[in-house]
Design goal:
Shape: elongated
Oligomer: single chain
Helix content: 25-40%
Number of strands: 17
Distance between the termini: 33 Å
Largest sheet: 11 strands, mixed
Order of helices and strands: EHHHEEEEEEHEHEHHEHHEEEHEHEHEE
Strand content: 25-35%
Number of helices: 12
Length: 396
Amino acid sequence: MHATRIHDVEELARLAPAWNRLAGPVPFRRCEWLLPWWRHYGPSIASPQRNVELYTIGVFDDGELVGLAPWFIDRSATRGRVLRFLGSGEVCSDYMTVLAAPGAEVDVADALADWLTRAARTSGRDLWDMLALAGVERGDPALSRLVTALYAARSSVYVQPAASTWRIDLPDTWPEYLERLSKSHRKQIRRLERRTLDSGRVVLRTARSVAEMREGWCHLTALHQRRMQSLGECGCFSSPTFAAFHRDATIALFHAGLLRLHWLEQNGRAIAAEFHLVGGDTLYVYQGGIEPDLLAEEPGRLATIATIRQAMTDGFHGFDFCRGDESYKAHWRAVAQETVDWRIAANRSGARLRQGVWTVRRNALGWVRRRLDVSPLRDLSADAESPHVTQPGAES
């Protein structure tokens, strides 16, 4: 088993079938999501002050791809050479990890750690200073092993709590789901259903063709922007790069059967829209928009009711609100899954110095840092056994 760096995006694209097998059911890890991200955001990130380059590492066993670290390197004068996940930044890709064939997580992580340890001592293109992995699941087996191995190689390791992801495990029937909710919430939903969805006053539309997907996409972007602007914010789609990335990614996802685009119509007018990614038996709620002029109709709540009901009808067993600790998620009886941010400095004086500067800067902004006694580092899924804990967390 050996690791090798993949420099060229076309070379990476040729690995798509094997890559997607490793990605499993999580759509954010697939090539249909991450390749468009790099094609749009790679050139967009680059500037006179910053230099970015693909830094994906493949792990092969007898010529077969058994592991993949979907990273890029972001070079700047202040931060140095920082490795990040493809899909980072304003796109907010969730559940990112090091991909590994089932049962090969340890070997893949060890191969990556060996490659990174050697690369950290070079003076060429493979040199890196920091590995910044944001919003990863606590206890992720491949990443825990990778961080443990890098810590053993005397890398400086920091971990900090990040925003949770939130998931509803769906029962078989809608009445069963309603019984989980509070009495007052259940009463409100039943009233709203009778008044709108069950009466036919509001209708759920789902894109079944490319033409319908494009129609729904127009509704979603317009409603999202209108709602955000009504709140005094710009909205995601004001970013040309964000909009262009999604135009490409949504087409690829739709053709792969990995996209659900819904909108609610009232008297022929779109009042809410939601964009979900499909992963196995789970829907991931990624983006939405509502009509700000019709808030009295509760379009946001209606959209959640309609799409959860539709998800159960379609046989899905998970409804994932993704990352973010907004209070409404618990109100729908979603359960939090903890995530953390890792920041790992290479075992080199320059990298450690940058890590120290970064830590001092964060402390000056009000971060709390405490050193824990760890010898050796054992279970990286628990804060109490991690070498450093920094709170609260944010990708930087």
